[in-house]
Amino acid sequence: MKLFTILLTTLALLSSRIAANVEKTIFLAPPAVHIPSDDPSTISNLKLNRLTPIPINQSSLHTLVPVSFPTTSHPKGTESWFLLWDLTPSQRYEVRICWAATQPTSFDLDTFTTSEISAIPSFTPYINSLLQSSPPKDVDLKTPHSYLFLRILAAADFYTTNTTLMSHPPPVIADIILDPFLLNALPRSLAPTAGYIIAIAIASWFLAGSINKTFTGLLASCSHEMEKEEEKKKTQ
Fold first, then answer.
1. Residue 222 confidence (pLDDT) above 80
2. Rg (alpha carbons) of the chain, rounded to whole number
3. Strands (E), the chain
4. What digits encode the pLDDT tens for the residues 160-190?
5. 37, 43 in Cβ contact below 8 A?
6. N or C, where is the chain less crowded by C-beta within 10 Å?
7. Cβ atoms of 180 and 188 closer than 8 Å
8. Mean pLDDT across the stretch 20-25?
């Protein structure tokens, strides 16, 4: 019993923090393609924040996401663009954004390939301030890459009598996480949780077996004592 208590305490200490609000999208990575260096809508000419599954410390981004109240021209608020880079073709991924409940916001996430991005009218004016004269040094234009553009739409979802906040809602502090699926079935971030559950199940099975064995022994001992008492009464 003491060992079981220690195990549960250890698992509780290893458990991670859960964010208050989460919005996500799940997708399959596209085939790897060569990056056209003369196309302004590709990463060779853009300076976008990138998320990549490996190394793991670059699979999440802690950032400020600009927001605005919905309007007729922007019914889902302000848009921000990111790059999902160095994906494994045909692998399932999940992108989620986590933010505190103290900043009520409505998020909408979508992913686009290079061929699909040309059909997004808002993308062209957005990239004007992100164009750079030369490709990033860490981008190999000779090697095909699997990548996607991530669009996050953020709309403020609150009401206040403060006219300043209603006119200029503050950006939302958020974590954007790229999470690959293991065997296309389980998000990588859930693997430790699955391990904890399996460990607890195994420990519970052994504990239940030990309790059952002890209880069975006590019943057998009591039954044996009762039989002895019955025999004594018969011989008297």
1. no
2. 29
3. 21-28, 50-51, 60-65, 78-84, 92-99, 105-112, 148-156, 172-182, 186-187
4. 899 998 999 999 999 999 999 988 888 888 7
5. no
6. C
7. yes
8. 88
Phi, psi of 225 (to 5 degrees): -65, -40
- CB-hemisphere CA count at 13 Å for 196? 15
Contact yes or no for 67/155 (Cβ under 8 A): yes
Please state the length of the chain: 236
pTM across the whole model: 0.72
Is 115 strand, coil or helix?
A: helix
Q: What string of DSSP letters covers 57-83?
A: GGSEEEEEE--B---SS-TT-EEEEEE
Q: Which residues contact 225 (CB under 8 A, 6 or more apart)?
A: none
8 Å CB contact between 117 and 123? yes
